[in-house]
Specification:
The structure is a homodimer. By secondary structure, the first copy, chain A, is of the alpha+beta class. Chain A folds into 2 domains: 79 residues, Orthogonal Bundle (Arc Repressor Mutant, subunit A); 52 residues, Ferric-uptake regulator, C-terminal dimerisarion domain (Dna Ligase, domain 1, 2-Layer Sandwich). Chain A has 5 helices and 6 strands; from the N terminus they run ααααββββαββ. In chain A, strands 4-3-6 form a 3-stranded mixed sheet, with no helix packed on it. In chain A, strands 1-2 form a two-stranded antiparallel ribbon. In chain A, helix 1 crosses helix 2 and helix 2 packs across helix 3. The first copy, chain A, is globular. The interface between A and B is medium-sized, with 34 and 34 residues. Strand 6 of chain A pairs antiparallel with strand 5 of chain B, so a sheet runs across the interface. Chain A binds a DNA duplex through helix 4.
DNA sequence: GTCGTTGCAAAGCGTTTGCAACTAT
DNA sequence: ATAGTTGCAAACGCTTTGCAACGAC
């Protein structure tokens, strides 16, 4: 399953006349293997475990590329950007502002939210692009601030 | 009205034994005067118009201070952090991912959204912390991606 | 006189860019 | 052989930090 999505990405790149280097292959593999989101830094780290010496700039360039091609998208979390598969875009990030734990909404919820906003405003939100901050169940006990 | 909120902030700082320097006064004035959000950079610029020579580090330190004290909060927009008055927290940022225009939800809408998320999950979202990305009315015409 | 605050300079980080060497095709 | 790709080093922009001078109280 990961193999197949990897493959379709590789095919897509190939069809654009782009080249498959070991670095790129490793990056694609790692990105597709990460369910949820991953930061450029930890991606770089994991990639280097496969292909030692891969430069951060290569990771950044590849992330940009994969985003242009429509395979990935990124989100802004508290500590910078995180990338995720576009197929996972029904995945909304919920970050607890108190304990830092992360959770996510999935499936139909985002759509319902989107519709709710869209109905009342002429704005079609993509709730996956930025995270949603708030208090998780455990942290709701004590009032913040 | 701006004068009065400025005053209450100054009082708050004073009550904590903090000192009122002209730099700090200018920063407070500018922050409170900005409806909506403001970036550290443009804040610094505006402050320098009042008190020439104010260093960026002073602006950052003061923003941190005002946030600790509960006067300000920040949001993550596409191009970095933006600060806003905490009293404005019913102000949800809507950023168009296509044309970059910004708009905002206000009043009851955020509450309705919050309730919707809270009802289905044990998560109490603060929709003001991160912006919500999407397509504005004008950009909805042509399909993105 | 104290001790919080400031400006300055330097360091830190994450990210981008120019470029020559390299390599997939 | 051609043109895309990489690593390296340098440049960047934003933010943080150490520190001595300064200034509010």
């Amino acid at each position: 399953m990961n193999a197949s999505s990897d493959q379709s990405v590789l095919d897509l790149l190939r069809s654009r006349g782009l080249r498959m280097t070991p670095q790129r292959r490793a990056i694609v593999t790692e990105v597709m293997a990460s369910n949820g989101h991953i930061s450029p830094a930890s991606l770089a780290e994991r990639v280097r475990a496969r292909v030692p010496g891969v430069d951060p700039s290569t990771v950044y360039r590849t992330l940009d590329l994969l985003e242009e091609v429509g395979v990935l998208s990124h989100t802004h979390l508290e500590n910078g950007p995180e990338y995720h598969r576009l197929a996972d875009s029904r995945h909304v990030h919920l970050v607890c502002s108190s304990c830092g734990s992360e959770d996510s909404l999935s499936l139909a919820e985002p759509d319902r939210l989107r519709d709710l906003v869209a109905r009342h405003h002429s704005f079609a939100p993509d709730l996956t692009h930025f995270a949603i901050s708030g208090l998780c169940r455990r942290c709701q006990g004590r009032r913040p601030r």
